[in-house]
Structures are given as C-alpha cells and as structure tokens.
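Example record used in the benchmark description.
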Amino acid sequence: MEPTGNTLPQRVIAVLRTRQYVVFFAIGLYALDVAVPILSAWLHRGARLDELLRNTWGALADAVATGSVTIIALFIVFVLVKTWLRAGYIRSLIGPFHPGAADWRQFARLLGFQLLLEALAAATVGAAVLAGGRLDVAGLIVLAVLLVYLSVIYADYIVILAGVGPLRAIRLSWRTVRAAFLPSVLVLLAVTLLGEATSSLVGDSAAGGLAEAAPMLLVQCAVMGVVLFVADVTLVTIYLDAAEHGRLRSGGRVSPSSRD
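Model output (structure tokens):
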C-alpha cells in the first residue's frame, strides 16, 4: 500500500477491490469472537441459548468468575489463536496473504495488546454486574468503554505495521485519532450500531434453540465480517495516510518488515 495522490476514499476503495478475498478472513475472525463467549457462558451457566446470548461475559470474565480449569484453558487457547490469526489478517490487508504473525516478536507484541483488550472487557463486565441494572450507571459504563476503544482503535494495526510494542502503539493510536477524529468516530459508531442490530436479530431467534438460531448466527457472522473488513481497511488506510503525511510527528512510520 504505497503512498499515492489519490484521496482517502479512493485509496480505501482501491484496497477493498484488490484485497476483497481477505473478507473471508474477517468473517472467520468474527465467528471465533462470537463462538467462544457463547461456549464459555454455556460452560459457566449451562443456560438456554437465548439466555446465553443475552448474557455473555467473555471467556476471561467467565474464567475469573468460576476458576474453572476448562474455561481458563479455553481462554488461553482462544487468545493465542486469535492473536496469531489477527496478525496474519492485518498483514494480509496491506500485502500478500499471510496466515499469521511474521515472527514471535510481532506475535508477542500483539498478544500483549490483545490481553489488555480482554482485561478491559472483563473489567467492563465486572462494573456492569456491580451496577446492578441501574441504567444511568450502565450508560456511563458504555460511554467510558466507547471512549477507551476509540483511543486504541488503531493500536493493533500499529503494532503490526510500525513494529512497536502495545504501549507505544496505544500512544500512536491516540495521535491518529486526533489527526482523523471524525472518520475514526464514524467508523466506531457504525461498527457498534450494526453489531448491536445484528445481535438483537440473533437474540430474537434464539428462543427456539440452536437449530432455529444457527441460520441467523451465520448471517450475523457474514454481515459483521464484511462490516469489519470495510472498517479495518478504512482504519488502516487512515493510519497509513496520517503516517505518510507526517501527522503523527514521530514513531508512526510503517516498518519495512510489515510489508512482507
């Protein structure tokens, strides 16, 4: 993805056209994100599918709540597999197809960031439980989480593309957000709202059990995979554009190895 004279939307469209096959990678990653929390919730509570879909905590939160060796093992396998695949996915957005990380250093850096995200998600669940259903507190929690996710929205791309550690990537992510505030907010809101809409449709069909919910789960994975693919391409392009034009001041250039 070399610098060009094209506008940002033109660059995004060009990448979507040349990397359209990577959308299946995005769908698979989203399916993994959907399946593991449902499985850990079932191991934790063993409730009906519709109840599990309404009250999934995530593998780390379930592991902390239960201390179950099985759920702990599930979380470890999940975060390792997801990190490896996520690294390959990001690399595939800017170059030839890659199934995983370039080397163990890249994998370890991205793993550190993924663990931070998982810890944030688990802390959010804990705060929601302590809120006890109070809508005002729940609204503040949602707002705080969205602001945090906005500040780190570019961080995993930066870990791979700039070859830096998670803390440096978070700082560069915030610089990128400030350099492109409006598009960053619009992408985050679009993904959040579409995610909530598809989740509610699946929840409505889950009362009939897995057989009735399975088609909607597959539709959700396909739709959100496409949405996230477009969002990822947009965000990667925004970051590269900001780095190439010097709007990140220092430390935001793409490392040569990230293009391999």
